[in-house]
Amino acid sequence: MQEQTLLIIKPDAIERHLAGKIIQKIEESGFEIGAIKKVVLTKKQAEAFYGVHRDKEFFSDLVEFMTSGPCIPMVVRGENAVHGIRELVGATDPEKAYENTIRALWGTTIRKNCVHASDCEKSAEKEICFFFDLCSIVI
After folding, report:
1. Is 83 a catalytic residue?
2. Where along the chain do its domains lie?
3. Active-site residue (options: 17, 53, 83, 116)
4. Residue-wise over 114-129: b if at least 16 C-beta within 10 A, else e?
5. DSSP 35
6. Which of 12, 17, 63, 95 has its CA 20 to 30 A from that of 72?
7. What tens digit of pLDDT does each residue of 77-122 get?
8. If pLDDT is split at 50, 70 and 90, which confidence band does 139 have?
9. Which long-range contacts (C-beta less than 8 Å, at least 24 apart) are formed by 47-52?
10. CATH architecture of 2-136
11. What does the alpha-carbon distance between residue 12 and residue 50 come to, in Å, rounded to a whole number?
12. Is this model's pTM higher than 0.90 or not?
């Protein structure tokens, strides 16, 4: 089933000039980029986006990290995109991620793991709308 999901290239990957490699890996895996932009999140925006984690001890560090530099949110489209992108991204902890996943290849720590990917269709829809209006997504 054709789906779309949100993927964010995080500040650590931007700082290490990995955006092109990550996008290439996504496209070579059969997915299409429907919308993309480079942004710098404010503290308020990062707190809103990661609000589901507000009560967790890592929340403040996550917000600080996600506001530490630019990131690249993108809408990724394809067959079973939510699940497929999650598989391509790999486990949150790069040391536990399967070989040849984005996080296994380029992630360095649980926080500095290069990318965020929506965890389900409902989250994908909400997260896409956080960064993009419908008219900016190529159909």
Report:
1. no
2. 2-136
3. 116
4. bbbbbeeeeebeebbe
5. E
6. 95
7. 999 999 999 999 999 999 999 999 999 999 999 999 999 999 999 9
8. low
9. 48/130, 49/127, 49/130
10. 2-Layer Sandwich (3.30)
11. 17
12. yes
